[in-house]
Amino acid sequence: MTSPASRVALALFAALPISAMASMGTVATNFGLTPTDTASAQALSMFSNQPSAVYYNPAYLARDRKGAMTAGFIFTDQELTAKGWGKPDKIILGGDVIENDSNYNVMLGFKTDLSTMLKGDRAMVLGFMLGAERSGYNLLSFNSSSQALPQSLRYGQQSLFLSVGAGLNVIPGIDVGAASRITLAADAQLGTQANLAGTTNQESVTVSAKPSIQPILSANINWGQLVCPEDKYCVLNGLETAVGYRYESFFKTTVDAKALATNAVALPLLLSTIDSYQPETFSAGIQYNFYKIRLAASGEYQLWSGLNDALRQDTVKDQANLKFKDIFIPRAGFELRMNDVFSFTGGVSYEQSPLDSTSSLDVNYVDNDRLVFGLGFSYLIEQALFLSQPVRLDFGYQYHVVRDRDFLLATTQGADNQTSGGGNGGKNGCPENPIPGKEDKVLCEGVTSGGNVHVLNASINLTF
Fold first, then answer.
1. Which of 244, 233, 182 is nearest to 47 (CA)?
2. pLDDT in tens, 61-79
C-alpha cells in the first residue's frame, strides 16, 4: 500500500514537465534553420551569408557586411511507425503509428556590421538566431520519460534554440568566427509536510535555471581572393573551403523533492535528466561558385559516443543501457540562379542512426537511418513598397525517408511475474531471456520501425 509520503512526493514529481516523446534532436540539425538550409539538406549551410551562419559557420558572416533581419516559419509533419511482429499475450505496442504529429517553429535571425569598431578595412559582423516551437507557447518545453511504447530519439518536440556569435576577416580571403549555443540547466526543489490522511501543508517550490554556453568555432578560405585576387581568370576564383567545430550541448533538469509525513519515514526523490542533446561535431565543406550555379559538399563527424556516459547519470534512462556510436553525415547541394531575381536550391544527405542499441528497457528509444531530400527557391523583390533595400522570399521543402529497422521493446510495467520472451517460447522475435537477470519480470515485443517526414520552411529576409 502506498504511504501518504509516497503519494505526496509522487504528486509533486508529477507536476514537473516530464512527459512522453522525448527527443534528442533539434530543429537546426534535423531540418535546418532557414529555407536554404532545408532545401539543400544543409549542404549549403556552411556557405550561407544569412543569420543562420552563426550556428553552422560563424566565420562566413564576415563575407557579407550588409545588415539583415530574417523571420521564418517551419512546419514539420512526421509519421513514424513501429509494426509488431506478432500478437503477444499482453500487447505492449497499442498501434502501428507511434507519432503522427505536426510541429510549428518560428525562427528569428539578425545580423549587423560592426566593422567600424576596427582599424583598417576589415569586416566584423555580428549574428543572432532564435527559435521556438509553436510560436513560443512551448518556449522552454522539456520532455524525458520512460515508457512501454516506442519513442523517437530525434523527432518530437523542438525546444528553445538560441545562438549568437560573430565573423571576422583576418586577411583578404581568410575569415574566422566564434559563436555560442545557449541551453538551460534547471533545478527544482519541492517540499511539503503531510498527515497520515495525505493532507499537505507548508508546501514549498523553488525553481531556478542557469544558462549553459557552449562554443562554436569555424574558419573559411576564399582561395581565389587569397591566391590570385587580381586575376579574374584564375581557376581558383569561386572556390571556398570551410571547417567548423561545435561542442556538445543539451538541456538538463534536476529535481530534489521531499515529503515529510507525521509518524512516518520521509521519502526523498532525486531526479536528474537531460533532453535535446547535440553531440560534439566536426564539420568541413567545399564550394565552387561559377557563372549561374554553385555546387557544395560537406560532411559532419558527430561524436554521439559522448552520450553514453551522460545517460548513465540520467535517473530516467539509466536502466536502459543505451549505447551510441559516432557517425559521419555526407551532404551535397546546389543553387541555380535562373536570373537576377529567381533561383533554385536542392540537396541530399544520408544520415546514419547514432543509436547502436536495438533494445532499451523501459525507455524504448527507436531511431533509424534516414535519406533526406530537399528542394526550394528564392525570389528577390528589388522594389518592395516603401523599402529602400530589396526583400527576398525563400521557400524550402524537405522529405525524410526513414528506413526500416528492427527493435525489441522491453518493459517491466505491468509485467508482474511473466515475460513475453521466455514465457511464450520466444515468439514475436523476443529471445528466451530478453533482459539478463530480469527474465521473469519483463514483457517484450519485436517491432520494425520506419516512417516519413515532411518539412516546409518559409522566410522573409530584409536587408539594411
1. 244
2. 999 999 999 999 999 998 8
Which residue in the block uniquely carries the three cell numbers 585576387?
Answer: 229
CA distance 330 to 337: 24
The x, y and z cell numbers of residue 331, run together, are 551532404
Q: Which of 456, 455, 460 is nearest to 379 (CA)?
A: 460
pTM: 0.84
Q: Contact, 159 vs 140, CB < 8 A?
A: yes
CA dihedral angle for residue 243, residue 332, residue 130, residue 165, rounded to 10 degrees? 20
Beta 443-463 vs 151-152: how paired, if at all? Answer: unpaired
Q: What share of the chain is helix, strand, coil (3-state, %, to 5)?
A: 15, 50, 35
CA distance 192 to 240: 61
Return the ∠ at Cα 296 (arms to 294 and 300), rounded to 5°: 160
Pairwise CA distance, residues 428 & 92, whole Å: 12
Residues ≥6 apart with Cβ < 8 Å to 11:
none
State which amino acid sits at residue 363: V
193-197, 237-241, 324-328: segment of lowest average pLDDT: 193-197
Task: Please compute the mean of the pLDDT values over residues 286-306 and round it to a whole number.
Answer: 94
Q: In 3-state terms, what secondary structure has residue 12?
A: helix
Strand partners, 331: 298, 349
Q: How far is the C-alpha of 71 from the C-alpha of 106, rounded, in Å?
A: 8
The residues pairing with 452 across neighbouring beta strands, listed in sequence order, are: 79, 401
Domains of the chain, each with CATH number or no CATH: 4-463 (2.40.160.60)
pLDDT for residue 291 is more than 90: no
Sign of the four-CA dihedral 43, 48, 53, 58 = positive
Question: CA torsion angle for 165, 170, 172, 174 (degrees, to 10)?
Answer: -70
Q: What is the pLDDT of residues 216-236, one digit of tens each?
A: 999 999 999 999 988 888 989
> In sequence order, what are the residues at sequence separation of 6 or more whose Cβ sits closer than 8 angstroms to the Cβ of residue 120?
none
Q: How far is Cα of residue 81 from the mean position of the Cα atoms in its chain?
A: 20
